[in-house]
Design a protein that fits this description.
This protein is of the alpha/beta class. The chain is built from 16 helices and 17 strands. It has helices spanning 144-148, 162-166, 178-193, 211-220, 261-274, 282-290, 294-297, 300-305, 320-325, 344-350, 359-370, 374-380, 389-416, 469-488, 525-528, 531-536; strands spanning 3-4, 28-31, 34-37, 39-40, 44-51, 74-76, 103-109, 122-128, 153-157, 199-209, 231-235, 259-260, 310-311, 334-339, 422-427, 509-513, 521-524. The strands form three sheets. An eleven-stranded mixed beta sheet has the order 4-5-7-9-8-10-11-14-15-16-17, sandwiched between helices. Strands 1-6-3-2 form a four-stranded mixed beta sheet, with no helix packed on it.
Length: 539
């Protein structure tokens, strides 16, 4: 990342703790490591590519993040940094991204407060992107709506992915999952610098979707995250989320998002053998692996082998599922939610390769996933009760993998912390714009599938069409809910339908989020997603 000349802005007389103290126009801010220059967009200012840790390259590969070096002069923060190395797209041979990727982006409102009184610091939202711990980038998300309409400071983060973020080996000992350690380093950066951008370091909301939500789950149960955030939002990824066998295609294994340190180290030993790093002491094997090129490591096979954060270390002493159900989690206000048709996205991606045309096709998938319990699942979800067998299969997976596991997580939180502010939602727009890149499958509408709420929170999200006027109104409501929660720990505000607090006696009724009159309404998740049935079925 380039540096501007030291004479680009006068630094004398600047107060380190005052926001925008180094530049009168608000585009230059003194961070704890040096000055950065962003870009004014009128109603907001963006700062891109700010380092929050040193590049994890060479001898720092597969080590916990260390502080970035200080710099002289004014650092250019007008362009996003490269994304972290990620799995090549199908058919693409070149590696995408860089190992030098531990950067974040900050967006701040222009100081004309609508909700924040003069002199008061704004809430801070820190976004962890999704992508199965294999892809994505903080800069993929345009936060201007959250920033301007919500009058909040928003931070998006890059973190290590795949083999670079979740590799384990006996030579590394009980190292933490590096991608999650990166996220905690970013949160420490936010704590040290939020006030310099007009934010309140005591009102930090950690939010994320899919793998980003699983990351939030991990930090909720991580002892090393204490004090790093004061609220949490988990979108489509609770600590209890899991997939049955065959969910991602016939004969694919069951999926648990976190793995034991021992399992990750065993996989790392196998990978080291494949890569020719087998001789010498564990330290020498680690040195051999650190000497390999990025291209040797960033293969689809190796990246996909290491996309589950390990537990059994200082950052995650135990599986987040076990920690949550045992009551070992940080007591902060929480929003958890899912989308009504979550698994249609995953099923839709695989229908060309693994079509589900007939009831026999559907039955075969049920047997693959549930074995001897398949007849019970079919009786609960007869294909004839759904427009197509493929949609019946997607409904089964949605309820089993996300809808009811999130409700179970709500129950666990409410039982162990009955006074905790806990809220739930279900994004339910049946005509949400389809995310760009998903295949069209005749007779298989995506509905409110996994990730389809993102265009309602982030501006310019890539979809096949823009939001309609009524969908834009829902987007405004959702932005208001999310930023009100960031501001007060309660999503409710004066001019919108209210969300109930989930209590141990009634953790099942959440807010449906759909456009149009009556679209924001109560929904009984337990009834809508057959959760009593799934509670009885062995997992």
């Amino acid at each position: 990342m380039a540096l501007l000349t030291a004479t680009a802005v006068p630094a004398t007389g600047a107060q380190a703790g005052s926001p925008r103290s180094a530049g009168r126009d608000g585009t230059v801010v003194r961070t704890d490591h040096g000055l950065v220059r962003g870009v004014s967009h009128g109603s907001y200012t963006s700062f891109s590519g700010i380092p929050y840790a040193a590049p994890p390259t060479g001898p720092l590969r597969w080590r916990a993040p260390v502080p970035a070096a200080r710099w002289q002069g004014v650092r250019d923060a007008t362009t996003a940094a490269q994304r972290c190395v990620q799995m090549p797209a199908p058919g693409a041979g070149e590696v995408v991204g860089s190992e030098d990727c531990l950067y974040l982006n900050v967006t701040t409102p222009t100081p004309t407060p609508t909700r924040t009184p003069a002199g008061q610091k704004r809430p801070v939202l820190v976004w962890m992107h999704g992508g199965a711990f294999l892809g994505g980038s903080g800069s993929d998300h345009d936060t201007r709506e959250l920033t301007v309409r919500g009058d909040a400071v928003v931070v998006t983060v890059n973190y290590r992915l795949g083999i670079f973020g979740y590799f384990g080996h006996p030579g590394l000992g009980s190292a933490p999952p590096f991608g999650l350690a990166d996220q905690q380093a970013a949160l420490r950066w936010v704590r040290a610098n939020a006030e310099r951008f007009g934010g309140d370091p005591g009102r930090v909301t950690l939010f994320g979707e899919s793998a980003g939500a699983l990351s939030v789950c991990a930090h909720l149960t991580s002892p090393t995250a204490v004090g790093l955030f004061q609220r949490a939002v988990l979108q489509s990824g609770s600590c209890l989320m899991s997939f049955p066998p065959g969910a991602l295609g016939p004969r694919t294994p069951a999926y648990q998002p976190f793995a034991s340190q021992r399992d990750v180290q065993t996989a790392g030993t196998d990978a080291a053998r494949q890569l020719g790093c087998v001789t010498g002491t564990p330290d020498e094997v680690s040195a051999c692996l650190r000497g390999l090129s990025t291209d040797r490591l960033a293969t689809a096979q190796l990246m996909q082998s290491f996309n589950r954060p390990a537990f059994g270390n200082a950052l995650l002493p135990e599986a987040p599922r076990r920690a949550l159900t045992s009551g070992r989690f940080h007591r902060v206000p929480i929003i958890q939610g899912t989308n009504r048709d979550e698994m249609r996205m995953f099923v839709g991606l695989s229908l060309a390769a693994f079509p589900i045309h007939t009831e026999n096709d559907y039955r075969a998938r049920l047997v693959d996933a549930f074995g001897s319990s398949a007849p019970d699942v079919e009786a609960e979800y007869p294909a004839a009760h759904h427009p197509t067998p493929a949609l019946a299969w997607a409904a089964v997976l949605t309820d089993r993998s996300l809808g009811c596991t999130t409700l179970a997580a709500d129950r666990a939180i409410a039982a162990h912390a009955p006074g905790l502010p806990l809220y739930g939602y279900e994004f339910s727009d049946p005509d949400a714009p389809v995310l760009s890149g998903l295949p069209a499958n005749p007779g298989f509408p995506y509905g409110a599938a996994h990730g389809f709420e993102l265009p309602y929170l982030f501006s310019s999200f890539p979809t096949e069409r823009p939001l309609t006027d009524t969908q834009r109104a829902l987007s405004h409501r959702m932005v208001d809910y999310w930023t009100s929660f960031a501001r007060t720990g309660d999503p409710n505000h004066s001019d919108a339908p209210r969300w109930p607090v989930l209590r141990p006696s009634s953790p099942r009724t959440v807010r449906a989020l759909a456009p149009g009159p009556g679209g924001i309404r109560p929904v009984d998740v337990n009834a809508a997603h057959h959760c009593a049935f799934w509670d009885r079925l062995p997992r």
